[in-house]
Amino acid sequence: MKICWDNLERLRYSKNTNRWYLGNSILEYMDSCEGCNESFLAYIRKDVDKRFCSVGCKNKTIPVDVSGKNNPMYGKRHTEDSKRKISANRKGKCTGNDNPSKRKEVRKKISESLKIYNSDKNWYGENNYNWKGGISFEPYCINWVKLFKDEIKERDNFECQNPYCESNNPDDLTAHHIDYNKKNCDTNNLITLCRCCNSKANAKRKYHKELYIKILNEKHTCK
Length: 223
What we know:
This is HNH nuclease domain-containing protein. One of its GO terms (molecular function) is DNA binding. It holds the Pfam family NUMOD3. InterPro entries: HNH_nuc, NUMOD3. The protein is of the alpha+beta class. Among the domains are: 57 residues, no CATH class; 80 residues, no CATH class. The chain is built from seven helices and six strands. The strands form two sheets. A four-stranded antiparallel sheet has the order 1-2-3-4, with no helix packed on it. Strands 5-6 form a two-stranded antiparallel sheet. A hairpin with a 2-residue loop joins strand 2 and strand 3. The longest helix is centred in the middle third of the chain and has 16 residues.
């Protein structure tokens, strides 16, 4: 937890124990965060990584892509004993659909609050972290017509090919350029996605490119 005025107003220091407290929680003073090199206060708990002052600093320092072969459990299976320990550790915690943040009314409130927050920010054009120099305005290839796009969708059975699709409208389909080159309309470079997954593919491009190449290779034996 970064030390700032908002935190200091709620903190108290005990000379008897030589410790900091925030409510009933005990905090430990750390000299330096591995991410930003600033001092910070860490909760004294086993599940807290005391090397970093925040999740943001941790994600900047440690790669967050643990999918596929990057995952330490890739190709392995949990033992029955391991499963029991994980289950026991999760008991009493709000996981899955039991998490209040998963409820529709809560998600709607979060969505509305983010709309208000984002409306006050200028996330457009060069100020957006996904800005790629205006390539979205580049022209498509001459084959990029409705009939051609419909052929791609038909090839993919008119289904979003993202196995992790969570869209509420998965039938709103479009053809996605796997290598992000709009002029490359080779059928092996095109895959059917819903508009939600197509938008998500603009982030983590290397991951999505490898994912969709693998899917096409497996489903259509494309080289």
